[in-house]
Amino acid sequence: MEKREELYRGKAKSVFKTDDADRLILLFRNDTSAFDGKRIEQLDRKGMVNNKFNAFIMQKLEAAGVPTQFDKLLGDNECLVKKLDMIPVECVVRNYAAGSLVKRLGVEEGLKLNPYTFELFLKDDAKGDPFINESHVVAFGWGTAEQLVRMKELSLKVNEVLSKLFDDAGLLLVDFKLEFGVFSDGSIVLGDEFSPDGCRLWDKATGKKMDKDRFRQGLGDVIEAYEEVANRLGVPL
Ligand code: TMP
Ligand code: ASP
């Protein structure tokens, strides 16, 4: 596999072409971003931890029947993935109230949502990732109604699989964000990453935040918390 030119540089990852038209390389950098890129800092080991965390989770999801972009780890900071046409929509599943839901509705952080909620946001930093609904996705051509049905179905399956996985490690999966893309055969595939950057995890016993809220809220020991989550799950670092 030959690494070719950079195709795209995101806030925390870079995407490279390869000599295979159906495969890309994802490079996980140490850049840590919050507030739609308004705050970016370098955190030692973050790229490596998130790359290996993501590989572990994606393989668990694939084994549970969720098609993912992940192909294989290439090194500490890189993995090989299927090339997808990304749908610019973020799918957020919440099991407990936190973050923007608390701000928007004025409910108490930690409120158990029964059942979970499923929300959509447009992936557009310049516009602050606005809250949207299904009709916007279809009307603006970001995705079809059929693709949305599949994205929701897969998001809920991910919630089922990962809620159990984290629960067994003494962690509450509070909420998470997923991004999907279309593979060359037209199927919807889970893309981007799953790591403590894109979900909220609270220790079941103490309520301690073990995810990127430590960075957003200046709580410190960000990567130490990510590493503890990885160790509890048995992710080889
Ligand atoms: P929110 O409470 O800010 O809407 O975030 C919900 C979940 O989605 C939380 O786990 C963080 C994640 N998320 C991202 O990973 N990237 C984003 O751009 C946004 C808005 C949320
Ligand atoms: N991922 C987004 C950003 O970097 C939002 C966040 O995680 O707070 O800015």
UniProtKB/TrEMBL annotation:
Entry keyword Ligase: yes
Pfam families: SAICAR_synt
Keywords for the protein's UniProt record, in alphabetical order: ATP-binding, Ligase, Nucleotide-binding, Purine biosynthesis
Biological process per Gene Ontology, one example term: cobalamin biosynthetic process
EC number of the protein: 6.3.2.6
Pathway of action: Purine metabolism; IMP biosynthesis via de novo pathway; 5-amino-1-(5-phospho-D-ribosyl)imidazole-4-carboxamide from 5-amino-1-(5-phospho-D-ribosyl)imidazole-4-carboxylate: step 1/2
GO cellular component: cytosol
SUPFAM superfamilies according to UniProt: SAICAR synthase-like
Molecular function GO terms recorded: ATP binding; phosphoribosylaminoimidazolesuccinocarboxamide synthase activity
SAICAR synthetase/ADE2 N-terminal domain location: 7-232
InterPro entries cross-referenced by the UniProt entry: SAICAR_synt/ADE2_N, SAICAR_synt_PurC, SAICAR_synth, SAICAR_synthetase, SAICAR_synthetase_CS
Range of residues in the leader sequence: none
Catalytically driven reaction(s): 5-amino-1-(5-phospho-D-ribosyl)imidazole-4-carboxylate + L-aspartate + ATP = (2S)-2-[5-amino-1-(5-phospho-beta-D-ribosyl)imidazole-4-carboxamido]succinate + ADP + phosphate + 2 H(+)
CDD domains: SAICAR_synt_PurC
Keyword 4Fe-4S: no
Family: Belongs to the SAICAR synthetase family.
Protein name stated in the entry: Phosphoribosylaminoimidazole-succinocarboxamide synthase
Organism annotation: Pseudomonas frederiksbergensis
